[in-house]
Amino acid sequence: MSETTHSSSPQGQPGTPAWTKVERARHPKRPYPMDFIERLFTDFSEIHGDRAFADDEAVACGMARFHGHEVLVIGNRKGGTTKERVRRNFGMPNPEGYRKALRAMKIAEKFNRPIITFIDLPGAFPGLGAEERGQAEAIARNLIEMAKLHVPTIAIISGEGGSGGALALALADRVLILENALYFVITPEACAAIMWRDAAHKERAAEAMRITAQEVKELGCVDDIVPEPSVGAHEDRDAAFESLDSCLLYHVEQLLAMPEQERLVQRRNKFRNIAQFYTEV
């Protein structure tokens, strides 16, 4: 997969490579998870509701076919119009969204179908109602259960992969990231507001946080980088779809050929050892 060289400038002035990636990941014409799902999969049959509270419109789950393979696909919905985005919490799931996703994963496991998730969200929805209904517990439960799933799992970060909200759908055998996508524990603006008490330092924060695809790949947080057109997926959607299609098929078939116990051991070891740092004395 292609690699991009990044500047290590500590000042993070506007226009730094890291902030350029942020702008590309947030481009209004960039394909959303449902755009990838509609283009790459056929016979998508949606599963609704968490059987406990509600059907979260920020999360879509459904059975589908991918190059002849029966799979479960999950993606967050961001909405096209302002009204839709408000209704879908700008793609940020409530706890019932994560519980719906987990319910669908358990169905996929029952029928021995690989699970593929698409992620483009700055974080889980932080509203009062979400906290009252157990947002943290829902995220934690997904992490526990995804670590134990007996079927192949693949997570794709197509835009922003933010905090525990993203991780709750990304504890997978393989984590793929598009070349101009991001994976972070907090948005650059929020980080700047905490570190320098001024969100205007967002470019500096983006540079320091090491959130670009190549940087998180070096940390071991993702397994593969999916190439994009030169300026970004918004420049040539067809090329972006084709690039992800071939990369995803490779990983699906590789995981299906792997013995189950070997997959489980590799998955658990990967997340136990992720992003470790050692200091020589």
UniProtKB/TrEMBL annotation:
EC numbers listed for it are 2.1.3.15
**PROSITE patterns according to UniProt:** COA_CT_CTER (PS50989)
Q: Name one GO molecular function term.
A: acetyl-CoA carboxylase activity
Q: Which reaction equation describes what this protein catalyses?
A: N(6)-carboxybiotinyl-L-lysyl-[protein] + acetyl-CoA = N(6)-biotinyl-L-lysyl-[protein] + malonyl-CoA
Q: To which pathway does this protein belong?
A: Lipid metabolism; malonyl-CoA biosynthesis; malonyl-CoA from acetyl-CoA: step 1/1
Keyword hit for ATP-binding? yes
Q: Is Secreted a UniProt keyword of this protein?
A: no
Bias (Polar residues): 1-14
Annotated localization: Cytoplasm
- UniProt region (Disordered), positions on chain: 1-25
Source organism's superkingdom?
Bacteria
Query: Which keywords belong to this entry?
Result: ATP-binding, Cytoplasm, Fatty acid biosynthesis, Fatty acid metabolism, Ligase, Lipid biosynthesis, Lipid metabolism, Nucleotide-binding, Transferase
Name all CoA carboxyltransferase C-terminal domain ranges.
6-254
| Description of how the protein assembles with itself and partners | Acetyl-CoA carboxylase is a heterohexamer composed of biotin carboxyl carrier protein (AccB), biotin carboxylase (AccC) and two subunits each of ACCase subunit alpha (AccA) and ACCase subunit beta (AccD).
| Physiological role | Component of the acetyl coenzyme A carboxylase (ACC) complex. First, biotin carboxylase catalyzes the carboxylation of biotin on its carrier protein (BCCP) and then the CO(2) group is transferred by the carboxyltransferase to acetyl-CoA to form malonyl-CoA.
Tell me which family the UniProt entry assigns to this protein. Answer: Belongs to the AccA family.
Q: What is this protein called?
A: Acetyl-coenzyme A carboxylase carboxyl transferase subunit alpha
Origin species, per record, is Acidicapsa dinghuensis
Classification lineage: Bacteria, Pseudomonadati, Acidobacteriota, Terriglobia, Terriglobales
Per UniProt, what is the name of the gene that codes for the protein in this document? accA
